[in-house]
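User: Could you check the structure of this?
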Amino acid sequence: MKNHDMPKNYAPKEFEERIYKKWMQHQAFRPEIMSDGQPFVMVIPPPNVTGVLHMGHGLNNSLQDILARYHRMSGRATLWLPGTDHAGIATQHVVERELHAQGKDRHDLGREKFIEETWRVKERHHKVIIEQLKKIGSSCDWSRERFTLDEGLSAAVRHVFVTLYQRDLLYQGKYLVNWCTCCGTALADDEVEYHDEEGYLYHLRYILEDGSGELIVATTRPETIFGDVAVAVHPEDTRYAHLIGKKLRLPLQDRCVPIIADSYVDREFGTACLKITPAHDINDYEIGQRHNLPSINIMNANGHLNEEVPAPWRGLPIGQARSSVVQALEREGLLTGKTPHQNRVGCCYRCDTPIQPYLSKQWFVRMKPMAEKALCAWQSGEIHFYPKRWENTYRHWLENIRDWCISRQLWWGHRIPAWHCAFCGKISVSKEDLTQCSHCGSTDIIQDPDVLDTWFSSWLWPFSTMGWPEKTDDLKKYYPGNTLVTAYDIIFFWVARMIMAGLEFTGRVPFHDIYITPLVRDKQGRKMSKSLGNGIDPLDIVDEYGADALKFTIAYLSSQGQDLPLDHDSFKLGSKFCNKIWNASRYLLMNLDNIPVQEKARYNELDHWILARLNLAARHMSKAFAEYRFDDMGHVVYDFFWNDFCDWYIEASKLGLYSDNAQEQSRALTAALAIMKETLALLHPFVPFLSEEIYSKIPGCAESLLILQPYPVYHENRHEPELLQQFEILQQLISGIRTLRSENQITPEKRVKVTIAFDKDFLHQDFIKSCFALIVSLARCESVEIWAENHAPEQSLSFHLDGCRAYILMADLIDKEAEKAKTRKEIEKMRALLAGAEAKLANENFLAKAAESAVQKEHAKKQEALHALERLQIYLDKLNN
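Assistant: Sure, the predicted structure tokens are below.
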């Protein structure tokens, strides 16, 4: 098999793995390969180490890879830094599920053994994820791969914790937090997902201590009455003004609480009497702080009621306690009624368990000072969002930021570097493990058992991965980065926090451009999810169509600021394009069997035209890349290759390739292959495997790599506006002849005689004359001649362009009488089809009972018949005249 030989069919499985290994062997993904170039840096949003790639990952990493390949080919020292996230809650869940299947839990193993087991699970899953990223073609620098729990990043995390503590931006306190009873840990505000649930508003009787009356209090959570410490009314509510300061006896318990006045109370909601439970509601907590009220925690960490509640309800799960309390209230005559009410319920982002407000001791980061710096960075133009509308989300979150709860009651993660001294009661924080208290010297110290929120390591990702806090060469050369490609749903979790961390610890923003990817949905507009079963596995697409079909389809359809609806068949678009590239390239390379190539390409007008079109495509691509308009990029390469290169250039080049002149054959093939090399470079970021494989077949390219070739750029000396205009007229002329043939049912095998009449002032007459042979070839003509008369040729079809007219001579082409009979028969057939469709659409019974799709089908038939009748009648009139 010759080096240039290509199998007949495009079969990506035959070469994708081989091509990737070749790139790796040549270290093509390392920035050092373009060491003289200006750096272009992206850090990968690290996937969870226990996950598998879903279509969101396929989208994100495909778009990042396109950017990396473009900038690498543009001569920049491109670093796309990969890695994975230890994903505290998610990974611990996976391990605990595996233990549960064995009838064990983490406490059976103990902390140390559990962490060892989690590392084993991490290694198992990590290998799968990395192989998947390679399978879709990700050109990351794997020599720099990082993990959020590796030794270097752990040192960075400790450094930041201690630094924040020293700057008084970190504190520990007993506060109301979002508590997941399933995960057994606190969650940050932005880790809580809200949805609406149908519930009830319960109306309870609170009797005045002196027995002189009662208040009706409305609540959605009657089980929390055991934590009530007051009932609040609005200070301007005249209905209750006389009761402020008096006491109420709590239902189902022998305890009294005061009636207080607070302007937070909504006088329009319920009875305008608000029970205050500071330990189990954030608004109640703040009211409690204002009025110096105690906080009574009635719940254990596992979500069961504790010893603070009366005996009958101790140990009950919170959900079960509600129904039990309601029954008791009914028995005691303390429930006056309940009304349906839609509740806004917060749930754990990881396991979907309803969140319980829970009073506990946690670590917090003061966010406001850092948020102000991050806002200033945006306002001063240091960062840009694509699409721009996401800047509003960023601004709103920073302007309304709350302190970040960073402690998690887990075992897997960065353990908090703080030690509590039993002797003096003080806390010591340290970058290194301590053996004695830094305040009193006592050795009776215990490290905080909690770990840090996963995002506490992730927010350092852009610079910790470069070796910070050490002053490394990578940090000096590659930080700050250029671009972040990520999803909208982690603008809070990750994007804003990385900007805050970058400014706080390095004094610079970690990147300047933030591209927010589209949200992948199914064709019905629904978000892809396991529960709906509508997800698409990107590896399934790779297996069926190849990695390039995946990448190209995603780019072509990724319109900035719009959701991306996909189904399995969507990727046929990319598959067909890849097949087109394969077949067109194979056709050109097959000519090497019979035609030798020359040392240097010599170009004729046709070659100069396609180079001018390639030049314009390069200009469009430069603009699209600068604006992160991936769909524009996809359309430019598709239109150039399919329309300009294949439909026109390759077809037109056959004149030279099939010439009787051997020198012209060789010149034409040499020129075509040189232009194909540049075309493959244009295509490479979108179809890297395919373009690299074809490139290696071109003479003289076997030892080089396309991935490292220059990306086409716009050159002014290649811009030939007059030639482009002349070819546009030529294309219109050929297309006009083709259209006339089609409209008049002239079959492809019939050669037609064409005459062309030029206006006296037509500037491009000589050019068109020089292209008569090309017109004959592309429009399937028998001949093309000049028509010098002032009238149209007899028995001809014509069309007009600005400056010339073309005629197809019909005299010897058809049997007019036979053609008339055939056309009349077609007209009758279309009339019958039209009558049938109209009859159905006039039938009220059909319209009432038929499916919408069936009705639309009849409408389509009607329109099809009307268009066909119009076309056939015009043709018949021409035959008659």
